[in-house]
């Protein structure tokens, strides 16, 4: 039996990152790393390992190592079956933001379609309602925060645009009266 999932760690995208994190994010954003992430076979292997590793460790360890990752649980849009995917996330007040980048590949990740069809999702040990961010000024603000957290997102955006795709941004709204742990919601 897998261990209980750890509470979702509060991730402030505005926080200053240490030199180790910055070096790791640079390495993960390097041309070779983004090239590998775009290879279907390599990406599929890494994401499968990540999903299992996060599940076995209760969400405490994934292949992203220093990057804030968590296990997103959705219900299949067609099957209704539980699906789990590792995602990079950050907080925006009490909301949690996730980017449907798929490393800039053409087409959105399956979890995005699942969250749109069945918007009640779990991230970490919390239940949320998924909402797609369509407002362009809000998207620009969230992209600025996302790029601070993980610079590869800017590269993914450029590659997706070349394929004619706009990468969706999804915000997760807490469903319980217990808001995500961390600072109070922004006003």
Sheet of most strands: 6 strands, antiparallel, barrel
CATH topology annotation: Pnp Oxidase, Chain A
Structural class: alpha+beta
Question: What is the straight-line distance between the termini?
Answer: 41 Å
Tell me the helix content.
25-40%
Question: What do these coordinates show?
Answer:
The protein has 187 residues and is of the alpha+beta class. It has one domain (19-174): Electron Transport, Fmn-binding Protein, Chain A (Pnp Oxidase, Chain A, Roll), CATH 2.30.110.10. Helix content is 37%, strand content 21%. A 6-stranded antiparallel barrel has the order 1-2-3-6-5-4. The protein starts with 18 loop residues before the first helix and ends in a 13-residue tail after the last strand. The model is unreliable at 177-187 (pLDDT under 50).
Write a brief structural summary:
This protein is α+β, with helices and mostly antiparallel strands and 187 residues long. Helix content is 37%, strand content 21%.
Features:
6 helices, 21% strand, Pnp Oxidase, Chain A, 187 residues, alpha+beta
What order do the helices and strands come in, and which of them pair?
Elements: H1 19-29, H2 31-38, H3 40-56, E1 69-75, E2 82-92, E3 95-99, H4 110-117, E4 120-123, E5 126-132, H5 136-149, H6 152-162, E6 169-174
Antiparallel strand pairs: 1-2, 1-4, 2-3, 3-6, 4-5, 5-6
């Amino acid at each position: 039996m897998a261990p209980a999932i750890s509470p979702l760690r509060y991730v402030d995208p505005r926080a200053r990152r240490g030199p180790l994190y910055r070096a790791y994010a640079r390495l993960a954003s390097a041309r070779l790393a983004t090239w590998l992430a775009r290879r279907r076979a390599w990406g599929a292997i890494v994401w499968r390992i990540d999903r299992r590793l996060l599940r076995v460790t209760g969400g405490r360890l994934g292949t992203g190592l220093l990057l804030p990752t968590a296990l997103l649980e959705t219900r299949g849009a067609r099957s209704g079956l539980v699906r789990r995917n590792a995602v990079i996330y950050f907080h925006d007040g009490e909301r949690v933001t996730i980017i449907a980048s798929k490393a800039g590949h053409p087409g959105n990740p399956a979890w995005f379609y699942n969250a749109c069809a069945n918007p009640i999702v779990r991230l970490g040990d919390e239940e949320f309602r998924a909402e797609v961010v369509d407002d362009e000024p809000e998207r620009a603000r969230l992209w600025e925060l996302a790029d601070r957290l993980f610079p590869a997102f800017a590269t993914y955006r450029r590659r997706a645009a070349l394929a004619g795709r706009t990468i969706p941004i999804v915000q997760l709204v807490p469903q319980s009266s217990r808001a995500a742990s961390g600072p109070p919601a922004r006003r």
